[in-house]
Amino acid sequence: MTPHSMNDSLFIADQAYASRLLVGTGKYRDFEQTRAAVEASGAQIVTVAIRRTNIGQNPGEPNLLDVLPPSRYTLLPNTAGCYSAEDAVRTLRLARELLDGHDLVKLEVLGDPATLYPNIVETLQAARTLVREGFKVMVYTSDDPIVARQLEDIGCVAVMPLASLIGSGMGILNPWNLRIIIDNAQVPVLVDAGVGTASDAAIAMELGCDGILMNTAIAQARDPVLMASAMKKAVEGGRQAFLAGPMEKRPYRASPSSPTGGIIAPGTARP
After folding, report:
1. φ and ψ at residue 129, rounded to 5 degrees
2. 136 is catalytic
């Protein structure tokens, strides 16, 4: 381990995390599979859709907190399924009440049910309200660098641009915009949505993303627990490659991998 990798924590809202992989808790077969996959991922932050998952609002039903206790994981309540700023704000106020004042949240306001693309106007409005009310907002957004900067200026603690559509598994479709966001942000930038397999995660980290949030890529794999382990390794490997500094790309120019001194020049015959 290099000094970089030994001290390379992810800081979100002044809290340090060893893992740069954040995972969702939906779409699994049952809570037991959820627990096993989260453990295999090594994630310390798990996101919970308040409108779809019971964390105490439905007494008598299985409770996610029984398998993913807040004493072990940082819960990240999210507003999945919200299509207006008003609904999103109401949902996160409920989450704060259910979780005894918990203030770290993930904001997403969707534009339509077909693409699940973010509604940026409503997202900006909700972010302003939530920050004003003391929430620490991690925000799902498009890969528009101007919007990312506006969300940071509002006071969001992390910006989370999509790589491609939620649940699509299409990977990173516009690395250039992501690089613009990463290069200009003063808060963590985490890819949220679109990762399909381990190579996508590695590419995102090699670009310089601070972390990745994923759900479908793990939960909908044939073996979610094995895929969670693969994603853990991909995120770690991609981060280390970024820190190591990849070699310069040299189009149309080869470079021998062995020393060239003392070799026989091409076309030179031995005596």
Report:
1. -65, -45
2. no
pLDDT in tens, 66-124: 888 888 999 999 999 999 999 999 999 998 988 888 899 999 999 999 999 999 999 99
Q: Which pLDDT band holds residue 50 (cuts at 50, 70, 90)?
A: confident
CA distances from 234 to 83, 206, 221 (A): 33, 10, 16
pLDDT tens-digit readout, 14-33? 999 999 999 998 888 888 99
Q: Is 38 left (phi over 0), alpha (psi -120 to 50) or beta?
A: alpha
Say how many C-beta atoms besides its own lie within 10 A of residue 254's C-beta.
6
22 strand-pairing partners: 213
CB contact at 8 A, 12 and 158? yes
C-alpha–C-alpha distance, residues 93 and 71, integer Å: 21
Catalytic residue among 27, 106, 136, 249: 106
